[in-house]
Amino acid sequence: NTVIHPDSSLFSDFCGVPVSATPMTSDETVPVGGTVTLTCRVAESDNSSLQWSNTAQQTLYFGEKRALRDNRIQLYRSTSTELSITISEVQLSDEGEYTCSIFTMPVRTARATVTVLGVPGKPQISGFEHAVKEEEKVTLTCTSTGSKPPATLHWYKGDQLLKGERYGQCTVDGNPTYNVSSELTLEVSASDDNTLITCAVNHPSLSPGDKRSEQALRVLCKSTGKLGGKEGSYRSLSFSLSARPTIYTWDKKDGGLPLQAKPDGAVLHFSMLNKSDNGVYVCHADNGIGSSEGEYTLLVQDPTAMSTTSGVDHAVIGGVVAVIVFILLCLLIVLGRYLIRHKGTYLTHEAKGSDDAPDADTAIINAEGGHSGAEDKKESGRRRRKNNLYTQKKACLFLLHAWKCRVEISISG
Known about the structure:
Blueprint: H1 9-15, E1 28-31, E2 36-41, E3 50-53, E4 59-62, E5 65-66, E6 73-78, E7 82-87, E8 96-102, E9 108-117, E10 124-126, E11 132-133, E12 137-147, E13 152-157, E14 160-162, E15 165-171, E16 178-187, E17 196-202, E18 212-216, E19 219-220, E20 225-228, E21 236-241, E22 247-252, E23 261-264, E24 267-270, E25 279-286, E26 291-298, H2 303-341, H3 343-351, H4 357-369, H5 374-412
Parallel strand pairs: 1-9, 11-19
Antiparallel strand pairs: 2-7, 3-4, 3-8, 4-5, 6-7, 8-9, 10-12, 12-16, 13-14, 13-17, 15-16, 17-18, 20-21, 21-24, 22-25, 23-24, 25-26
Helix pairs in contact: 2-5, 3-5, 4-5
């Protein structure tokens, strides 16, 4: 009275059907929109036909012959021992058991279960609409739709994993997918300003980090400010703060802002500077719970006046040097002409300072009387040549001294 199931190997042995003719399949998992391959094999062939049927027991392929008109289903491989088909653009309705049959006596079958994963949508973060004050609490909500099975949501602050509260998991009527939600409550501080809070989806259909959303925190806190600029060639003044303000206001003491000064948040730009821009500039910042201000004194120097003064100094020095050189040249010309016209008398008087002074006087007397002898004339000529050499030496020394003086004056100038 033993009952043997037709799919059992004992049935094959008892009824004379070889075990090698039993079809073999495998279960498959595929995400929505993907492609799945269903394969049915037998170890040995007895020329019996293989067939694939869908979850509604509709024949898809009988050997190489298409039975169901669905262009998503295509023949992948057909041999005497294998029948493989593919289903593309998989939908949730394609999930279920598919049957492979081999038409022996009796017919043998094997089943393959296809699991279709609902791919979750990109998470959406809500609950943060405007900046919050430090030491206050903020609650963020992350929601993802369309997952099957239900997705898991994770919170991160920078690289730090945070613990959120999973409060929502529901399905839509007639749709086997899930919508999941998670909440995160934080008490913010000044250091949290600009910090990124991330919500990431974890699901079998996704690789880690495939779908995530980020929300930057904006924290309002009391702050101190500093106004700064660079002396010399000014282009802009900037006001730096230790926290995020919401409003910047620029002003100038003892008058309004110049027309060419353009405020741009924390920066005051100058398109062109002149001396009328000199003064004290004030920047005021306010973020709703605190305020701060800074002052900066702007001093614009006139580059034209500086360059003119420098040019005048150099012109005066150059003029003085030119006058001195001109005077020296004039003196040299006058001295040269004098030496040429009064050559004998000058040389004789110069000789009076030497040891031959008596002879020089004698030469003068003889020259006036005109009665000197030949020997006296020769002696007088010899002495005159000697005096000429002496005088030329003195003149060279004088010229050298004059040139040295001109060079020293030029260098000092």
